[in-house]
Amino acid sequence: MINIKRISTEDKILDQMQQNTETVFNQIVGREIIDGRLLKKISLTVGIDNPISHKLDRDLMGYIIVKNNTNCTIWESTSNSKTLTLRCSASTVISLWVF
Q: Could you read off the pLDDT tens digit of each residue along the chain, which spans 99 residues?
């Protein structure tokens, strides 16, 4: 969790607002999908396994293709804790959000 610095006041409304802001903020940043990394300009070659190091320093939970420059299908092949392996129906360049 990220700690938000609170300002000590004698104003109960301001104190409650700070508490509510911290609660909502921690709910948002605590989501697994937020704790990710954007990988840009990844070349995938058709017909082979394309290993991609996700660089998360933890096991991969999932990925989202955020950019694809070719009309093709992309799917996950065999993967391990450090590497995501993708295959594609046509050679392409993609960007991924990994989390």
A: 567 788 888 999 999 999 899 888 888 877 878 889 999 999 999 999 999 999 998 899 999 999 999 999 999 998 888 899 999 999 999 999 999
Which sequence spans correspond to the domains of the chain?
1-30, 37-98
User: Which secondary structure element, helix H or strand E, spans residue 52, and what is its range?
Assistant: strand 50-53
The predicted model scores a pTM of 0.71
Task: List Cβ neighbours of 15 (8 Å cut-off, separation of 6 or more).
Answer: 6, 9
